[in-house]
Amino acid sequence: MECALDLFEAQGYEQTTVGQIAAAAGVTEMTFFRHFARKESVVLADPYDPVLAAGIAAQPVDLAPLTRAARGVREMLASLPEPHTAVVRRRVRVIAASPDLRAGSALNNQATEARIRDQLIADGASPLAAAVAAAALLAAMTAALFTWADAEQLSMTGALQAALHTLEGSDG
Questions:
Q1: What is the pLDDT of residue 154?
Q2: Domain membership of residue 16 as a residue range
Q3: What HEC string does the chain produce?
Q4: Within a domain: 41
Q5: Does 12 have pLDDT greater than 80?
Q6: Which of 13, 36, 56, 74 has the fewest CB atoms within 10 Å, measured from its CB?
Q7: CA distances, 1 to each of 99, 122, 157 (Å)
């Protein structure tokens, strides 16, 4: 991953080949593909996506869908350790700088958005309210991450928490 990030930052994601990454890491392309299904997987894999719906499901069902979603994610974030910030920040910067990766990130977000929407619907929200809440949540989190990537003074959790508070209509 370090070698890939170095190359992506130096010459751009689109201009970097898997062969170049493998050579820089001192491995074969086959070895690269044992670790990553595709080149974009180096930066787009998100270990937190699967736990978002579970955090939302743990919230009281009588809350409004957007409030449930924001609070569920906030509590989930509070229970997780801050990730290895330098690497994650580099990954987010590479994604933000690449049209291809932004598109890939949007596709990843669609799957996460669907999980969140489905959880809200399963807990009694209307399909429209669930869809709006899920879309707003993912848009806010993406905006927070892209802002955080270029703001060294912010913690990732702090940026995400601020976005969640904004969704709920408070300054946090």
A1: 87
A2: 2-35
A3: CHHHHHHHHHHCCCCCCHHHHHHHHCCCHHHHHHHCCCCCHHHHCCCCHHHHHHHHHCCCCCCCHHHHHHHHHHHHHHHCCCCCHHHHHHHHHHHHHCHHHHHHHHHHHHHHHHHHHHHHHHCCCCHHHHHHHHHHHHHHHHHHHHHHHCCCCCCHHHHHHHHHHHHCCCCC
A4: no
A5: yes
A6: 36
A7: 20, 38, 22
Residues 50 and 115 in one domain: yes
- How do the residues of the chain divide into helix, strand and coil, expressed in percent and rounded to 5? 75, 0, 25
Q: Which amino acid is at 25?
A: A
- Which tokens go with 166? 């904004």
Same-domain check for residues 13 and 69:
no
Q: Report the C-alpha gap between 150 and 99 in whole angstroms.
A: 17
107, 108, 110, 111: CA torsion to nearest 10: 130
Distance, CA of 80 to CA of 72 (rounded, Å): 13
Same domain, 7 and 65: no
Number of domains in the chain: 2
Query: Is there a single domain that holds both residue 148 and residue 104?
Result: yes
